[in-house]
UniProtKB/TrEMBL annotation:
Composition bias, Polar residues: 310-319
Keywords assigned by UniProt, alphabetized: Phosphopantetheine, Phosphoprotein
GO function terms (MF aspect): phosphopantetheine binding
Protein name: Male sterility protein-domain-containing protein
Region annotation Disordered: where it falls in the sequence: 298-319
NCBIfam families, A to Z: Thioester-redct (TIGR01746)
Keyword rRNA-binding listed: no
Domain Carrier: 206-282
InterPro entries associated with the record: ACP-like_sf, AMP-bd_C_sf, FAR_NAD-bd, NAD(P)-bd_dom_sf, PKS_PP-bd, PP-bd_ACP, Thioester_reductase-like_dom
Species per Swiss-Prot/TrEMBL record: Dimargaris cristalligena
Tree of life domain: Eukaryota
Amino acid sequence: IGTVGEIYIGGIGVSPGYINRPDLNQAKFPKNPFTGKGTLYATGDFGRWLPNGEVEYLGRMDNQVKIRGFRIELDEIDYYIAQFPSIQANVTVVRKDDNDDKIIVSYIVPQANVNQTKSTDIDQRHYHRNTCLISDLRGLLKKQLPSYSIPSVFVPLPELPLSTNGKVDKAALPYYKDALKSMISQQYTSVSRDNTSVSAATDPLSEYSPTQNTLNNIWQQTLGLDSMIPLHTNFFELGGHSILATRLGIQVRKRFGIDIPVSLVFQHPTVYSMAAAVDQFAQATSNIVSKPSAIDNTVTRPVSSEHPPVQSSPDPSTEYSNDFATLIDQLPPPLSTIQFNNSDTPFVFPVRIRSGEAPIFFLTGATGFLGAFILAHLLMHFPTATVICLVRAQSPEHAFDRIKSSCINSLLWQTQWDITTSETSTYPDCKIGYGSQRVRVVVGDLAQPRLGISLAEWQSLARGVDAIIHNGALVYWMYPYSKFRSSNVLGTLATIELATSDHVKPLHFVSSISVFNSSHYIQLTRPEDIVLAQAKIGTGVLESDDLEGSRYDLPSGYDQSKWVADKLILEARARGYPCTIIRPGFVVGSSKTGVINSDDFQWRLVKGCIQLGKAPVLDNAINMCPVDYIAEFVVQVVAQPQALDQGTFHIESPSRFSYNDMFDQLRLYGFSIVSIPYSLWCVYIKEATDKSTDNALYPVLQFTQDDMPKNTRLPILDTSHTQVICHTGGIDCPPISSLIGLYLAYMVKVGFITPPTLDS
C-alpha cells in the first residue's frame, strides 16, 4: 500500500499479445504470475494502491524518471519552463553523458524577439542573449523545483522537430554535446570579432595561468569536451552534475596533491574561481609545512565549552557568521517594548492548545519524510485541530495532492483527512487555504519574501494561527551557504515575523544537530564522556549552549545555514518571544511500520555495502532516532507550556550505536559483508561506481570519499530538557539496535534491497 509501481491489467479481456512480436510481448504482455494462466498488460502508467482499496493513477512512466536516486517529473519541469515569457516552445528529455550517467536536458525555442539573428555579424549578441536567457531560466527553476530536477543542460533551437502527427519528435533532437561545443565555439568566435568582451563575467580568451590550464584539462576530461573551457563558464551549465563534480574533485586532489574538499566545485563552479581556490589551498599547505612553529593568529582569551578562540582574520568560511550579524537587525524589537492589540499581557499560552479544542497550526516542510509524520501526529494528538501546510506547488489542488501522497507513502493517511473542498475552515478564526477541515494548504515557498504567499493569506495566518511549527528546509550537503540562504535562513526569519505579527504565538523550529559539526564541539567529547553518557550521567554540549563554538569553521553550507537560523531563533527568544529549537539527530524509519526514507544516506550506505559485499571499519556513533518518536516529541513540545521555558532540546538515541554495530546487525540478519579498512573500502566503492551507476552510494559518492572517519564524528549532547518533556508526555525512544530487523524487513518488502541468500 502506497508504494509506487507500474499498473498491470489482467482479466479475460486482455489480449494475448502482438502478432509476430515475441520480443515486445515479453515486456508488454507477461504471463499472469498470480493465476499461472493468461497474460497481464503492462500499461506503462505509474500508480499505487490506496488504503481504501482504490488505485491512484500517477502518470506515464516515460514522463517520470529516476536519476541518481531521485524521482523526477519531466512534465513538471516543462510546465515551469513554459511559464517563462521568453520561451516559445520546450521539451525536456533524459540523455546519457560519456560516463553513461543520466542527465536532464531541456530543449528550448526562444521567442523570436529574443533570439532573432539573421547576420553572422551579431553572433556575439546572439550568444549573449541565449546566455542571459538560460541564466534567467535557471534562476526561475531554482525557485520552483528541487535542485535535482533542474536540467543540467539547456539547448536553444530555432524550432523543435515534429513528427507526422504534430508531436515533438524526441529522437530527432540534436545531441546535447554538439550544442555545448557550439556554445563554447560561439563564445570564442564572438569575442575574437570584437575586442570588447560580452560582459565582465565572460573573458574566454584571457591568458590561462598554469593552474587554470591544468584545471581546464581536468574539466575537459570530466565533461567529455575537447575544446578549451572559457574561464568564467559555469561547470553545471556544461552538463555537470553532482557525480561529475565528485569525480572532478577527486581528480583535482590527485593532480595538485592537496587535501581540498571534494565538493570544491559547488563553491567555485568556474575554472577561474576554482584556480584561485586551488592556489589558496596550495599556499596554505606550503605555509603549514614550512612554518611549523608559526604564531597562532588568534586573540588571546580563555577557552571554555561555551567560547572557542576568536580568529582576528576569519577566512571566507565565516561568510555565514558575518551574515548573521547583519540579519539580527531584522528581528522584531524586545517584546517588553511593544504592545499587541492594546493588551497589557504580550503573550499568553494559547487557550486552544492548552484545552486541545480546535487549535490551528501552521506547518512548513509537511511534504518531507519527517514533516509528514509531524502532520499526522499533530492531527492524532489534537483530534479537532486544523493544520495549515505551506507547500510549493503549481496549484492548491496540486499542493493538497503532494501532502496526501507524502502521507500515503509513509502509511500515515487517514480517510477522515481526505475530504477535499474549496470551502474555508469551519473555524472562523482561520479562513484560509484549500483542503479539508483537518488538513489545509497554502501554496508558497520558503525562499520567497513573505514565504511566497499573498498579503491576505499572510494576515489571515497571523490572526488565526495558534502556533507555528517550522520544519521546512532545503537539504543538500554539497551546496555553499549562499544556496541555502533564501530557504533556510530568510525563510526562518519570515516565520519569526509571522509569529510576531498581529499577536505573539509560539514558534517551534525543527533544526539539526549539524550545528555542532565544528572542531570545537567535536573535540569537547572525550572517551570518558561516552561512558558517562551511556550511564545517563549529565554530560555533553548543554542544551543552553550559545553556539559560539561553531561561529567559524562549520564545514558545509547546510550546517552553516542551520547555525544562522538557530542563532536568529535564540536571539528572538532572548528578546522575550516564545520560541523553541528542536535538534534531532539522523531521522530513520518508523518504529511501528518500518517505513524508511530510502534516499537517506544511512540506508544508501546499508544498501551500497550489501551490493559491494564490503563495509568500512568505522566506530563512530550514529545518532539515529525513529521518525515517529521525533514527530511525537515535536507534538509534545507544542502541547506542553513548560517547553517554552526550557527553550532548546537535543534528541539523541538512548544507547550508543556505531557504524560497526550496524554492519554487525547486517551480518546477524544473514547478509554477507566483510569489514575492511576505510581507505581500502573507498577504492572498492570508487571502482564500483566507475563501472556502474547501480550501486546505491553512486548519488552520494562525494560523501563516501571525503574522509568519513572525520566527517561522521559527533559530540555527546546533553538531553536534560528532552528527558523532562518525554517523562511528562509518557514517550520513550526505543534503542535502534532493536529496530534494524524491522527496517531491513521493510526494505526487502518494497524491493529496496534483496533478501539474504537462503543458505546464509
